[in-house]
Specification:
Elements (H helix, E strand, L loop, with lengths): L3 H6 L8 E4 L17 E4 L8 E10 L1 H9 L21 E9 L12 E4 L4 E2 L2 E2 L13 E4 L1 H4 L7 E3 L6 H5 L1 H10 L13 E6 L22 E5 L3 H14 L2 E5 L4 H8 L5 E7 L3 H7 L3 E10 L8 E4 H6 L3 E5 L22 E5 L4 H12 L6 E5 L3 H17 L3 E5 L6 H11 L5 E6 L4 H7 L3 E9 L8 E4 L3 H4 L3 E3 L6 H13 L8 E6 L3 H10 L5 E5 L8 E2 L3 H4 L1 H4 L10 H11 L5
Helix pairs in contact: 5-15, 10-11
């Protein structure tokens, strides 16, 4: 007779008639589930072109908490009547196929395991899993055409038996980390895009050239020009006549002019500011399109910091580049491509103690040809302790210097001195911001090295303004980058790295629980209670949210399987399933 684990893995048991599901009926934790419990529903029925999947594990993400806080004001579900059409959250999912529609039997089979790429697009529309489509905070769910025949192919990614359920579920957040180091900006003004050249009182109009990007066969479809004169104006006029793109001039820089210039466009793909003028940069920046680039040609320091929407750097991929020279194209070629941590460099992770921060630190330590010196800072002593316990010994084995510091335990002068001493006075090659606090971004900029890269990973909302000294983009070639989410290739590469043992998502697990524990798990993430990830096993009933150390009292047989008595692993997971899952073979 098969044991519970084998029967479970092979789906050699009778599926239940009823399932438990967490639905969100409105804003606030009180509207997550019913009376702090999941709702009971009939087992979903699947059609000929659908799959029925068992949710084996689901990670809880702060993005879930954002939806709970905002309800139908969340941008992905704006206007949805959650009372009538509730959301099933959960986008960090590991699943097993337990039912295959007739039309799909040639492509899928029972027992196949998948992770979900949550950023689903179907027919040109965003249909994100766990937002628009029902997610993984349930025991069983339906996967339909949107995910099987999506715009980018199938959004189900196969996993081998070597990968555990928690590891698989955490592929999604790990892939977001991986994606943040793969940002590649355009090497020139966007072909067939919309560019805006702005002159300032600092401009050297007769000196500017455009080596690349406004050429025959490689140019914007429209170029706007504000307050230009002299050689650069003549150059653009001549090229517009020769190459046939639209050229629109406007004098005077005010909001009415900007609104008129933008017209029906969704924003400017490139804004080229000729001269160092903080007022012009600040006024123009809001009109960057998604993935837009502001290119500043300046020679003198700006008169003041510039108010920049750093939320759009993170979510919309805005970039600020520049040069102290006169070739408009030169700025584009100065970015580090991709945005990987500098080999043998010095990196600073701000807000390193949280779940995502620890992933970044772990990746940096384990990265082949990664940084040699790493500073991890956080103001939460318990979280920092976790970083020390988890990663200092790993760093030592890999020959990486890892220093863990709480800035609140020293004066600002002493902390500033530490930053300078840690880098030998040259600054950090990479600064990764993992705490959504604009002041941290502002305060870190002076500590970037020449050609340093600031990765704004923290999920700052659009409209979050920080006062940044962007003089560094043209006089020191520093860069700001940001990203949100991941693509299918990022997920696939993360799965491969997990299978090869190059990364260990299990190391990120801080607490586990059964389906009943999801409400408490959401509250714990909201409160920042754990330094690592919470993983829910929906097929388990009666397991409250349990930090890994407390498994020793609650489930000593599971705790005994932990690596070094502290890290989650496949053996502990298998023991948990044997002990806690109730099925009827």
């Amino acid at each position: 007779m098969k044991d519970i684990l084998q029967a479970y893995r092979e789906v050699a048991y009778n599926l239940p008639d009823k399932i438990l599901t967490w639905r969100l009926y409105g804003a606030g934790l009180d509207n997550f589930g019913k009376d702090v419990k999941p709702v009971q529903l009939p087992m979903p029925k699947y059609g000929p072109d659908e799959l029925l999947v068992r949710v084996d594990a689901v990670g809880i993400c702060f993005s879930d908490v954002k939806v709970i806080r905002q309800g139908n004001k969340h941008p992905r579900i704006t206007g949805r009547d959650l009372r009538k059409d509730p959301v099933i959250l959960g986008h960090e999912a590991a699943t097993t196929v337990v039912g295959v529609g007739e039309a799909l039997k040639a492509k899928f089979h029972m027992g196949e395991r998948f992770v979900v790429q949550a950023d689903v697009f179907y027919g040109g529309k965003s249909m994100a899993y766990g937002y628009v489509l029902p997610g993984a905070q349930t025991q069983y769910g339906i996967i339909g055409r949107e995910m099987i025949e999506g715009d980018e192919g199938c959004y189900l990614l196969g996993i081998s038996d070597a990968v555990g359920d928690a590891e698989a579920a955490l592929t999604e957040p790990w892939a977001c980390v991986v994606a943040s180091y793969r940002i590649i900006h355009r090497p020139a003004i966007k072909p067939d895009g919309v560019a805006w050249f702005i002159g300032t009182s600092e401009a050297e109009f007769d000196a500017y050239t455009i080596r690349l990007g406004v050429d025959r066969g490689l140019h914007p479809r429209t170029v706007f020009a504000t307050d230009l004169r002299g050689g650069i104006l003549s150059l653009l006029e001549e090229r517009a006549d020769s190459f046939g793109f639209e050229f629109v001039q406007a004098n005077g820089f005010n909001s009415l002019d900007i609104e008129r210039l933008v017209g029906n466009y969704t924003g400017f793909d490139d804004i080229i500011v000729l001269g160092a003028d903080a007022d012009v940069i600040e006024k123009a920046a809001p009109f960057l399109a998604k993935h837009g680039i502001m290119n500043i040609l300046g020679k003198t320091p700006l008169s003041r910091p510039v108010n920049i929407d750093v939320g759009r750097v993170h979510y919309d991929g805005h970039s600020y580049v520049g040069t102290s020279g006169t070739d408009v194209a030169a700025s584009y070629g100065l970015s580090r491509v991709p945005s990987e941590l500098l080999s043998e460099g010095t990196a600073w992770f701000i807000g390193a103690g949280g779940p995502m921060g620890q992933m970044h630190v772990q990746r940096a330590i384990q990265l082949e040809d990664g940084p040699k010196r790493i500073l991890a800072t956080d103001i939460d002593a318990e979280r920092l302790n976790s970083v020390k316990e988890r990663y200092i010994s790993i760093a030592e084995r890999r020959g990486v210097e890892l220093q863990v510091v709480n800035p609140e335990e020293m004066t600002s002068e002493a902390f500033d001195r530490l930053l300078k001493e840690f880098t030998g006075g040259r600054g950090f090659d990479d600064i990764v911001v993992l705490a959504p606090v604009p002041a941290l971004i502002q305060g870190a900029i002076p500590h970037l090295a020449e050609c340093g890269l600031m990765n704004i990973f923290a999920g700052l909302a659009r409209g979050t303004i920080a006062s940044l000294d962007v003089s560094g983009v043209y006089d020191r070639h520093i860069r700001f980058v940001g990203s949100s989410g991941s693509r299918i290739t990022d997920m696939q590469d993360t799965i491969k790295a997990t299978e090869k043992g190059e990364i260990s998502p299990n190391t990120s697990v801080s607490a586990v629980g059964g389906i009943d524990a999801s409400w408490e798990g959401m509250r714990a993430v909201q409160e920042g209670r754990f330094p690592g990830k919470i993983v829910i096993y929906p097929q388990i009933r009666g397991l409250e949210l349990t930090p890994l150390p407390k498994l020793k009292a609650r489930l000593p047989n599971v705790h005994g399987k932990l690596t070094d008595g502290m890290f989650w692993n496949r053996e502990a997971e298998d023991e948990l399933i044997r002990t806690m899952v109730k099925i009827h073979p």
